[in-house]
Each structure stands twice: as C-alpha cells, then as structure tokens.
Amino acid sequence: MKQAKPKFHIEAQQHWPSFTHYGTELSLEHLDAHRVTFTGQKHSFQFVVTYGLHCFAKDEDGGTEPDAALAYSDGRETRPFSLERYELSKRLPEIVSSLSDKDIQELGGGRDKYRVIEIENAETGEVLEYKVGFCCFKENRLLRLHVTTAFIERRTDLKQGQHRRTSIFQIGMELSKRPRREGFIPKEAQNKQREK
Predict the structure, then answer these.
(1) pTM, whole model, 2 decimals?
(2) Cβ neighbours of residue 161 under 8 Å, at least 6 residues apart?
(3) Which of 42, 43, 80, 87 has the highest count of CB atoms within 10 angstroms of its CB?
C-alpha cells in the first residue's frame, strides 16, 4: 500500500495531478510537497519545499493558437505543458536537496528571490544553462522554499549583471529571525488549487 504524503498547512499546490499527453500518463509526483533539512556546522534548517507550474509548463508561443491538449492549470493560471521542462523537473528535488552546496544568487526586483544555475550537458554535447528560480519565506511558522520556475536559458544577448551571493544557511537564519505573523507570501507561491 502506498504511504500518504504529508499535508502541510500552506497556501500551495502540494500534489500535482498527472498529465495525460496523447494517451501517455506523465506523473508529477516528484514535485509533491516535501521537507528538506539543511545541516551545516553551526545551524540546521528545515524547509517545506513546493513547486510551481513554471517548472513543467512554459509561456504561450507568441502569435500561435494554444494547443488545448497541452493546457495545464494551477490555482492562478493555465499554461502549455512542456515535455522538455517536465523531463528536467525530475532533477529538481535533488537540486533543491543539495542547495547547501550551491552558489545561490540573490535576485533584484523582488523580496527573497533567488536562483541557481546548473550547467547541463545535453545529449548533443551542447552546454545549456538550467536556471532554477525560487523564493523563501515563512508561512504558519514553517520555513518555505517555493521553486517558481526552472528552464533552459537559450537567449544569448542577456546581460549577466552582478548578483549578491548567499547561502541557504544565511537565508534560513534571516527567515528564522522574522516575526511569526509577518504574513508575506509571494503571489507566485500561492498556487493552491481550489476545490470545485
């Protein structure tokens, strides 16, 4: 018998229903909510990890009619399912679990937003940047880490900019000092599907 996944008192999608792609069922169980503990020399922090729609769905292609067979919805929006993003999303739990060993960049333009970049060697030998964006915050006394997006960066004219570097331990320390009732939850992390 399959063991039930833990349910957390949070405003996020905790279980993603499978997607049927032309008769083939694609499981999204690897993106179910889970706990991750990061243990360092001085501190240990436990986060509840959730994932967003943009980890396996993409933007509409400009000017083309959307394919209704690819539509997937969360509590906020509907986007086309992406097989490339889906296949790469299978690596996300491992990437998140190893954040204590990653170079985390702080992003400007928003509170508590970060990213890591994994360099992927595709089967073609091409070097690709797999960008994983996430936000961290406190919700109902839990430390939350919500992966907002994950995609291969194909634009070549990007300005890299200088981003401040941080660690998951620094993020955990800053969050643990915040008041319990701060109430700040980024809108992209509030993707809980409502009961119909």
Answers:
(1) 0.86
(2) none
(3) 80
Q: Which residue has the higher pLDDT, 105 or 124?
A: 105
**Checking DSSP bridges between strand 142-153 and strand 44-54, what pairing results, if any?**
parallel
Q: Where are the alpha helices (DSSP H) in 2-144?
A: 83-89, 92-97
Q: 182: number of CA atoms within 13 Å, CB side?
A: 16
* Burial (0-12, 13-18, 19+ Cβ within 10 Å), 91: middle
Q: Which amino acid is at 123?
A: E
Residue 186 has a CB neighbour count (10 Å cut-off) of: 16
- The token duo for 97 is 């679990």
Count Cβ atoms below 10 Å from residue 173 Cβ, excluding itself.
Answer: 13
Dist. CA 127–CA 121, nearest whole Å: 5
- The rounded distance, in Å, linking the Cα atoms of 60 and 121 is 26
CA–CA dist 167, 84 (Å, integer): 29
What does the alpha-carbon distance between residue 188 and residue 112 come to, in Å, rounded to a whole number? 12
Cα 52 to Cα 13, 65, 77, 145, 194: the distances in Å are 8, 24, 11, 11, 15
* 3-7, 63-67, 100-104 — most confident range: 100-104
pLDDT digit string, tens, across residues 141-180: 899 999 999 999 877 665 565 678 899 999 999 998 887 6
